[in-house]
Specification:
The complex is a heterodimer of chains A (414) and B (134). Chain A has 11 helices and 14 strands. Chain A is α+β, with helices and mostly antiparallel strands. Chain B is mainly alpha-helical and 134 residues long. Helices cover 50% and strands 9% of the residues of chain B. Chain B has 4 helices and 3 strands. In chain B, a hairpin with a 2-residue loop joins β2 and β3. In chain B, α1 runs antiparallel to α3 and α1 crosses α4. The N and C termini of chain B lie far apart (37 Å). Classes of the chains: A alpha+beta (414), B mainly alpha (134). Chains A and B meet through α2 and β13 of A and α3, β1 and β2 of B.
């Protein structure tokens, strides 16, 4: 059921940002295209950043990791298992249709079933004297494209490391399918949700008793020759989970920190022009408007990244039920009906967000070159204030305008 | 209508002048990029400039529309018919005549370019009296 290969990465920085761009798929909320030059330039910067030396190096490191002795060994084991299965493959049953069929039932449960249906093409891949590795519907393998880790909104953007060390998330949350592609479940985002890694492990242990999994499983579980059965998964979801508030509130308080009157960048401006000057009043007016606009601006940016999709994102409970209608011949001794519930855990939307460090968040937004801070969260804050001039006949040198921009120590002048 | 088009055309020429690659401000920007290639590769600055140039016509037209709505005497623009440099400087200083009336004519021309070095503050490319850059 898992779609996740292992532990959540601690810090992906630009790679995460790269993956975030991958969630800009039809069906996500990432359709807004801002054509203002700041935004266009930022997109160009991001494209360039994604092709940067650092990213290339990180990719190279990842490729090396994938070809490491450990990874190669795991791949060899997997290949052995696959070969073991395919070489021994014999069709022994053509009955039933494994498919995912989300249904509303009571609160929020969805039901994914292997429905017995004469004439369909469920195949138990097995040799009479060899165990199966898994069941699947060969007529429609997987029912669609299996999402990969990081492709479906959530995994990348919920990683604490995506925010350059300023993110908050449970270390053990885990993305999962109700029924995985390899098990005949439909691919796609609708089949993906999150719960803790502990719950995932608990679930998988039972799931593998139905589908088989791993070399140990092959020894223990053998379907009967001409075995048939119904496999049903019911998934209950937590309602209206919205990850966005935890991020929006911290970004907004960071903006309030950066645009506070007491910030050094602002006091430098005040000292330059004088607190009673027209320039200072204009600057204060611009600052107030800018601050007022940032809440909506951040909200839109978070939506663009995929945070705004409130809904049933977290698993509340999962039930599985496998009822063998015909155990067939030669089934392993432990092959039997199975019923299992894995109940909710305590991961909630409130566990995700940003640290309460407004100054550090502000600095990251200004630098705009780390993880999801890339993309210039403060782009609309580059402003100019003109300075009065008496005209060409005044004989006074013409004063240059003052640039007020986000600085490391607040909004104002360097 | 024809007069308005003429005024907008003057504005287009002015921003095109300001964003020209021969302008000292742009040369300073490129020089800074060459000296800090690890932070801001010159090709990055070039692509940012191209994007700003692409958007510049729409931005300056927006400003023109706002000044019209404020009742500003946009005819003043025509006095710079053959002087895009002079008009750019009016847009830059924005403190005289119709150019000091409304919002910043070059709002949207200030672009922060993030550094590729972690923790380093971005480079601001913006209008200067002698062009667009640093």
């Amino acid at each position: 059921m898992s779609t996740h290969d292992g532990k959540q990465p601690e810090n992906k920085n630009q790679l995460v940002s790269d993956k975030t761009s991958e969630i800009a798929t039809p069906g996500s909320s990432f359709h807004f295209l801002n054509n203002r030059p700041e935004a266009v330039a930022q997109r160009k910067l991001q494209e360039n950043a994604n092709n940067s030396l650092q990213v290339s190096q990180l990719r190279s490191i990842q490729e090396k990791a994938n070809s490491s002795p450990q990874a190669k060994q795991a791949a060899r084991l997997q290949a052995m298992a696959n070969r073991y299965s395919s070489q021994q493959n014999t069709t022994i049953q053509k009955q039933g249709n494994m498919k995912s069929s989300p249904q509303a039932s009571g609160g929020t449960p969805e039901v994914f079933q292997l429905l017995a249906k004469a004439g369909d093409t469920i195949e138990l891949e097995v040799k009479p004297d060899e165990p199966p590795r898994f069941m699947r519907n060969k007529a429609e393998p997987g029912g669609g494209e299996e999402p990969k880790s990081g492709e479906i909104g959530g995994t990348g953007i919920l990683d604490a490391g995506s925010w350059g060390g300023l993110g908050v998330s449970p270390r053990n949350f885990h993305r999962a399918h109700a029924i995985s592609n390899a098990f005949g479940g439909g691919g796609g985002a609708d089949n993906v949700a999150w719960w803790s890694s502990e719950k995932e492990t608990e679930w998988t242990e039972s799931e593998e008793k139905v589908r088989g999994g791993g070399l140990d499983q092959i020894e223990d579980w053998k379907p009967g020759d001409v075995e048939t059965g119904n496999y049903t998964v019911t998934r209950g979801m937590k309602d209206n989970v919205n990850f966005k508030p935890g991020y929006l509130s911290r970004l907004s308080s960071s903006a309030a920190w950066g645009l506070d009157d007491s910030r050094a960048a602002w006091t430098r401006f005040r000292d330059l022009v004088g607190a009673d000057s027209e320039e200072f009043k204009k600057g204060a007016s611009i600052k107030a408007k800018y601050l007022a606009s940032l809440g909506n601006y951040f909200s839109k940016k978070l939506d663009d990244l995929g945070y705004g999709k409130a809904g049933k994102n977290l698993i509340d409970r999962m039930n599985m039920n496998y009822q063998i209608s015909n155990s067939g011949n030669g089934a392993g001794g432990s092959r039997a009906d199975l019923s299992k519930e894995v109940a909710s855990d305590d991961i909630d939307a409130a566990d995700f967000g940003l640290k309460n460090e407004p100054q550090n968040i502000w600095k990251e937004m200004v630098a705009a070159n780390t993880g999801l801070f890339t993309g210039n969260w403060l782009a609309t804050g580059n402003k100019r204030v003109n300075r009065p001039w008496g005209g060409p006949k005044s004989g006074v040198p013409r004063p240059a305008p003052i640039e007020l921009t986000p600085q490391e120590d607040g909004w104002g002048i360097p | 209508m024809e007069k308005e088009n003429k005024e907008v055309e003057c504005l287009y020429k002015a921003v095109e002048w300001g964003l020209g690659t021969n302008r000292p401000a742009w040369k300073r920007a490129l020089s800074k990029a060459l000296q800090n290639a690890d932070s801001w590769p010159s090709e990055l600055l070039v692509s940012v400039r191209e994007e700003v140039l692409t958007q510049s016509g729409r931005l300056i037209s927006d400003w023109y529309g706002e000044v019209i709505s404020l009742g500003g005497d946009v005819g003043e623009i025509l006095t710079f018919d053959d002087n895009p440099e002079g008009l750019w400087q009016e847009l830059y200083y924005m403190n005289y005549g119709v150019f000091g009336l409304g919002p910043d004519p070059l709002d949207g021309f200030l672009i922060s370019v993030p550094s590729r070095k972690s923790g380093e503050m971005p480079l601001l490319l913006s209008p200067k009296a002698d062009g667009w850059g640093v």
